[in-house]
Structures are given as structure tokens and as C-alpha cells.
Amino acid sequence: MRTIAISAPYHFSNQKTLFESLDSVIKSDEKIKLITPAIGSLSNLIREYADNNGFEYEFYLADWSKEVNADLERDKRIISDADEIILFDDGCTNKINLLKQWAEEKNIHIFDISITPNDSVKYAEILAKELSHITNNNEIIAAIEEFEIAKEQAIKEAQYELAAILRDKLRILSMRTF
To answer: Quick one: which of 7, 51, 81, 107 has the most CB atoms within 10 Å?
Structure first.
């Protein structure tokens, strides 16, 4: 079975681009397993594509309650399990750059697809969010996604203290998922 990792910036949600890219890489008669991080709209799109084509899929979680750098550990697990990787690259997301580096080190074939970067994150609005009132699991997951995007942006802008603060808020939020 061929295992294909797929990763994109957290803002990526273009179904047409994803489906056309996967169609160009995958033959319909192959046994395929698609693996991806379990956050953002990408996981929903992968589920839809896999269900439509009869492929297996697996989502990898970042457990912020147990690991300080849970997103990096999750991404390392993805690379270790992949035979090849499809990256949707906005040219500025640290996660995508790291995945490229790790895939090259492991000699994994990389399909690099350029996409448009997202607008800048407004940190003051994100940091001012009141987290204690969020109790619904779907709201928690949406907040985690928002904080993940902000953390990636802070890393990209070399605002490491801000990224650490956002990481701590991610840890708090992830302990509340059920």
C-alpha cells in the first residue's frame, strides 16, 4: 500500500486544487492510504476525497496536553509513516518548510504545489480571546485551529515569545477536548 502524506497551511481550503492535485498523483486502481494532520479544513477535504475514491485515510493528532512541541512531533510521525508527500506551499509557512526538509532527509518524493499566502494574523484579537467560556467540542477545535494559525504566523515573523504564549494557550485548549 502506498502511503501519501498531505499537508498545507492551516488556512488552505481549496477543494478543487486539492482534488485535482491528488488526481494527478494517484491512479484510481492503486491501494492508497492518505495521512494528514487532524486539524483545519484539510482533514475534511481528505476524508471526502478518500470516501469518494475508496482510499484509506488516517488523521494525526497533536496532543498539546502531553508534548510541548506537539505539532512538530505529529509532523515527524507523519513523515516517518509516508512514502511520499504532497505539500501545498504558500511560501511562508514554517511547518511546510520543515516538512520539506524532513522529507528530503528521508528521501521521500515531494510534490510541491504553490498556493496563495493568507492574510496576516491579528495577534491582539487572538490573545484577548476568553477561553474559559468555550465548552463545546466544535468551538474548542475551531479555537485550536485559530491559535495554530497564529502560532505559525508568529514563528514565520520570528516572534518566538508570542509563539510560546500561543503554544501554551493551545495546550490549555487541547486538554479540554473530549
So the answer is: 7
Number of H-type helices and E-type strands within the chain? 7, 5
Question: CA of 91: how far to CAs of 53, 95, 114, 127, 175, in Å?
Answer: 30, 11, 7, 25, 32
pTM beyond 0.85: the answer is no
Residue 50: pLDDT band by 50, 70, 90 thresholds? very high
Q: Is 24 exposed, middle or buried (0-12, 13-18, 19+ CB in 10 A)?
A: exposed
Estimate to the nearest angstrom the gap between the alpha carbon of 74 and the chain centroid.
9
Q: Which amino acid is at 18?
A: L
Cβ count within 10 A of residue 11 = 21
Would strands 2-7 and 32-37 be described as parallel, antiparallel, or unpaired?
parallel
Q: Is 153 left (phi over 0), alpha (psi -120 to 50) or beta?
A: alpha
